[in-house]
Amino acid sequence: MSSISFSEVADLQISKYANIGAFAILIFDFSITFQDEVKWTWSRPWDITRVIFAISRYLPFIGSGLTVYAALRVSGPPPPSLAENIIHIIGIVAAEGLLVIRTWAFWQKGKRVLIGLVVYGAVTIIAAVSMNVFPNHQLISADMSTLPKQGGFESSRNAALVYAILALFECVILALTVFKKFSDYRQVKSSIITTVYGGSMFYMLCIITITVTNVIIDAVFPLGYTNMFDTLQVVIHSVLSSRIMFHLRSSHDHNYERHTSSMLMISEVIQYEQPWQLQTDERRSNASSEV
Length: 291
Known about the structure:
Elements: H1 6-40, H2 48-72, H3 81-106, H4 111-133, H5 158-184, H6 191-220, H7 230-290
């Protein structure tokens, strides 16, 4: 026991509590947004967007649940961390997929933008997974842990590079949105554009913030903290990407209802004015015949 660092034990315990807290955030957000999900998604057809949404929305419950189980485990062999990593990666990829679809729609569904984002996203996934699957090849100088294997609560310093690659991809999506807004939509006044650019920009900045935070923690903090925000990373991606989708659907439907109501009002006005116009036309025709 003399070789074990008790400070690392304390750091590891804080990391476990942080992962449990992130799972609680996921459950809380699901409970307060479930009504929005029913309203804005359940009546929609099962297209690619809804499939990706379902994955990013519900798969984090499985991955986070496995992480919480590992954190609360007091005896027995450590649960396999590979399954957790795979589920976390799929959940993050699905959430990023929703952001790609949103950016593609904001760029008026251009084929070049879609192809560029898909290719760049595939390269990002391959690079990130390669560094995550082969942690023995340390690209950053690593400290040696004094504790036995902790069931996925300590990772290699390579995780900093994984999060850095992810942060770069998210910054590209953010830059594309900003560029499109100021190049094509500067003079456009639309609630949909405001929702896409305003709310989505805020959520994107939050996602980038947690990703950059993980880069810093995994690069310079003690090993016990390396996976402190691992679950929070997945939770933030799932929560905020879902909220972006809810806001887009809400804004679109509100615009549709407002347009429909205005068209009904115009038709009612036309129907109301038609008899008056007919009487005026008759009077004019009678006056002209008398002349």
